Amino acid sequence: MKFSALALPAGGPRSTVSSAAFAGTMRSSREMMGASSMQKNRTAPAASPRALGRSLSRFSACLLAAWSIAWADEPRGAAPAGAAAAAHADPWWKHAVIYEIYPRSFQDSNGDGIGDLNGIAQRLDYLEALGVDAIWIAPMYPSPQVDFGYDISDYRNVDPQYGTLADFDRLLKQARAHHIRVLLDMVLNHTSDHHPWFVEAASSRTASRHDFYVWDDGKRGAGAKPLPPNNWVSLFGGSAWQYVPAVDQFYYHKFYRQQPDLNWRNPKVEQAMFGAMRFWLDRGVTGFRLDAITTLFEDPQLRDEPALGGTNAQGDPNLKNTYTDNLPEVHDVIRRMRAMIDSYSGGRLLVGETYVPKTSDLDPWYGGAKRDELQLPMDTLVGLGNKLDAALFRQRLMEAETELHGSQPLLVFDNHDNIRSWDRFGDGGHNDRIARIVAALLLTSHGAALIYQGEEIGQRTVTPTRVEDVQDPIGKTGWPKDKGRDGERTPMQWDISNAQAGFSTSAHTWLPVPPDYRTVNVRTESADPESLLNWHKRLIALRRSNSAVRNGRTVMLDQPNASVLTYARVAPGGETIVVSLNMSGKEQSVSLGARAAGLEGTRCRTLLSSPAGLEGRGIGERIPLPPFGAWVAAVE
Ligand code: GLC
Known about the structure:
The protein is an alpha/beta fold. Strand 12, helix 11 (363-366) and strand 13 (376-379) form a beta-alpha-beta unit. The chain is globular. Bound molecules: alpha-D-glucopyranose. Alpha-D-glucopyranose binds at residues 19, 22, 147, 150, 187, 255, 291-292, 353, 416-417.
């Protein structure tokens, strides 16, 4: 099973996808990488991008207007009409930098070795200085933690490990004071098997909530042995059906057996889940990242999935996902959800976990031309590949520009389910420079941008070396082919104040702190103007201040070049920047062909360069770029 964007065969195995995608990416990349390229030395500091942005054009009148209503929780219409119109025309999320927080690993405030909400609150200054617009907090609801929070047992509370509702409300308020919006992770596909709904549903066929889940009588084998109704497999290994003797039926679970799928054909499920979403919207969250959203519905006839041949890392047959993923019914739900979200003021947002095989498949998730579904389905096709390939990036970026009815892509290079981009794109020798290329691509391309905690300082994937140390269940069952997702979930590396990198005061953190924290950490990198962290800060500041990066169209330059990706962003008012990224280990020289591409101006003035010191040039001159060099320039 391969899903890595770059490895996906045409029309390939996972023709539709789901969160299956991440597993595929993870497996394929782990299998192909062997020992990963863990090494590095870094450098670093900076002016707060937010401060820098402020002094520039960030607070244009229109943005100010958007900002002023952005935090209002009153129903729509309470905001001044002009402000609402401005926010509508250029909503905040179109240009947002969204920062994913995996709460278990971000900051521990009470010394139990596990991150928590008060820990997040302690780090808001850092996030504001980095310049992020919103944080997405992975699930922090009560949960047995089989899938570390993605198995929710109460949608209207906070897990005691992470804090209390009062802590959450305080975090929300403090985040607002730092100009940071809060998005929660909403898991709609399944609950925990400890959720009271499921406990009731599994107790009797006549229980009032039995139909909240997907049940089937199954088949009978020798001696009337109950057998699953079809060949569907769980993404996390084994049959997707679990037998419950009390009801003499099987329930369906796309993920772990402790994560029974909800039955979205039952209108009461929608009612209950929308109610849970309202609970948080009413408290003031800006919106949600919708987990595994492509898998809400299954074929009511429970037809067998077509086999693709071969087996995956969990030893299961590779199957197509024709009947368990991306069924059309999901879009009706999303449209109603969007209408619900839009009934709130303040620029509420729906982000989707939308792994799809090709860019045009993202279009329906926006609602096509109507744009009445998700504002930001994630585009994982640009950033979740395994290969630094200029031609492929060029192609994917242009697809995102032309195949989405003008909707805004949300680019993702890292998350808590995939090997970090540091290790996927790094060559083992130039990872630091390559990470700067990735950051430049993410932050100067057309679209909103997602940063996963630690990405900005170059945290590595540190995969367990012994099966007994593995925390992620798929790493236990898949060992050694699939070592699970612990590697990308290790604690955030803040400083060198203790052996836990400032993440915790406990010697026993839930996952070990990688030893490279002594050089790869926020404090050290903050003090070094040339660090990866400060590279990110400067890029984010540029996004805020430069109209070409914010709103410009993309013009690909030097297109035949297989080693260097070069593009211009041209703002409606004419402001233009050029970005040139050498994706090869050899020095390259780039011919912009700017005149032919219709760019105006005579000179390119360097705004940012890696390595530092790359000089500006006349627009007609060839631009020399060192191995894995990155250059961002203003055309004047
Ligand atoms: C999503 C999450 C992943 C989780 C799965 C099941 O893909 O990102 O971490 O295991 O859904 O909820």
